Amino acid sequence: MSQAWWKKAVFYQIYPKSFNDTNNDGIGDLNGIREKLPYLKELGIDALWISPVYLSPQVDNGYDIADYRQIDPMFGTNQEMYDLIEEAHEQEIKIVMDFVANHTSDECLWFKESRKSKDNFFSDFYIWEDAKADGSAPNNWGSSFGGSAWSWDDSRQQYYLHYYAKEQPDLNWENPMVREYIYDMMRFWKSKGVDGWRMDVVTSISKDLAFPDNPRAFTTENQQNGPRMHEFIHEMNQEVLKPFEMMSVGESPAAKSSDAHLLVDPKREELDMIFTFEHMHVDRKKGDVNGRWALKKMDLPQLKSILASWQIELRDKGWNALYFENHDRARVISRWGNDQKFRYQTATAFATVLHGLQGTPFVFQGEEIGMTNPKFELEEYEDIELRGNYQFYVEQQKTMNKEVFLAAVHKISRDNARTPMQWDASENAGFSQADPWFKLNPNYPEINVENDRKSEQSVFKYYQALIELRHNEAILTEGSFELLYPEDEALFIYKRQYAGKTWYVVANFSETKQEIPSEVNGLTGKIMIKNNLQRAELSNSLAPYEAFIIEV
Ligand code: GLC
Ligand code: CA
């Protein structure tokens, strides 16, 4: 069998609201994506993952879907979506949509019917439970957006479960009708030409129906890897993914390198790839009462060891999805690098170590020009997660004060990645003629696509070159992997080997010069890519955030 197309592909994620606005209402749209296809083609990417564009009240920016078969008028029409798919295909760009099937919007017809009574067709489409004798919620499960995961419904006189906002009720996958409705929706989009799916929190779809309390109230440990998860995913594979040859990448917050193969081993026929969260937690104080807002300094040896263990564990047992950024993550150069003095170097250093690995790289819009986190005031943010968590940790639980919370927001909040795309230095960054739905990063007159592409130090050109390497060099997709100097606090160095070739991927993740360690010192060969124009061969020392790949 020929190799799966997505193994040599580089993906680009679009967050449509913030990408490109063509009808000047301040909100990015489908025609805005179409207009930028030539730009994306120049970058060299092979496929787009488009965050949700379906009909939605936008409580969670589209991750609350009211109708899976309808494009939200805010983004355009169904016909415009079909045209986008067709035009992308003409340019040999595949389209992957976002599958949000752990929950719907409370404005979805299914939920509106379900809440009416206990005995209509949709009654069991969601997870309904009676109150405890004292009227309280069935258990102490928490919502990811703060507070309880249960909300009381007056009309039905029961609680319903929602792992996210109360406007995002969780679907009941135990009900075969729910699964059939979902599979049918997937076939519908297949018939329109969609090539695959990014699957939103797909590892949450099965719930422990005994509803046991969590060890700590309002935490979310219960949310992942429920008892029938593999069974449901396998069924979806058999019903849709396999027969219709649709590619899949599942969001899998709890997967570890040791058990990831259970989801992605081709023999098991579940998913093609998963997005792990493990490597993104290397700046988190584990087990802290303030959850993901409790930060510490990024631990480079830990980052290396996690990435390395995924490389090794999934070798011949699955395929990695590689990323540092997406719409739920901060800009990596602001979070773990230096986005001021060494912005170009940090951006390209992170890109080098990620794109040098085995797997399929995902680039998030703006990452390819080194966009940075904004530092807004608390009131200027939009994200429901941020607001809900502020209420919970600062106002209710009082385990953080506002300043500490805001400092964490500046580092890791999801809104960091959601400011409008910076195309040029004109008003509103060329994103829109109108005031955008969310504030622009004030640095857009300096950091934007147009400036970057003109610059000698162009992040865009560096990504272009990396993507070209991936397309041309089998060693990147096929080669073995070996991590060198795992304990080193500043250097990230690894070796790839394939068919008689040896490559070293080398990066300095510190702001000071570093000596090149003995094993790689003095090697000569061909530099495949570098972010320091002076670099000729492997010798001497590495400049701050210097990175390169050398074939020896
Ligand atoms: C996923 C999405 C995130 C969303 C959540 C609920 O984590 O990536 O943006 O808020 O699921 O759908
Ligand atoms: Ca618009």
From TrEMBL:
User: Its family?
Assistant: Belongs to the glycosyl hydrolase 13 family.
**Alphabetized Pfam families for the sequence:** Alpha-amylase, Malt_amylase_C
Q: Where's the Glycosyl hydrolase family 13 catalytic domain?
A: 13-418
Its domain of life reads Bacteria
- Enumerate the UniProt keywords alphabetically: Hydrolase
Q: What is this protein called?
A: Alpha-glucosidase
On whether Acetylation is a keyword of this UniProt record, the answer is: no
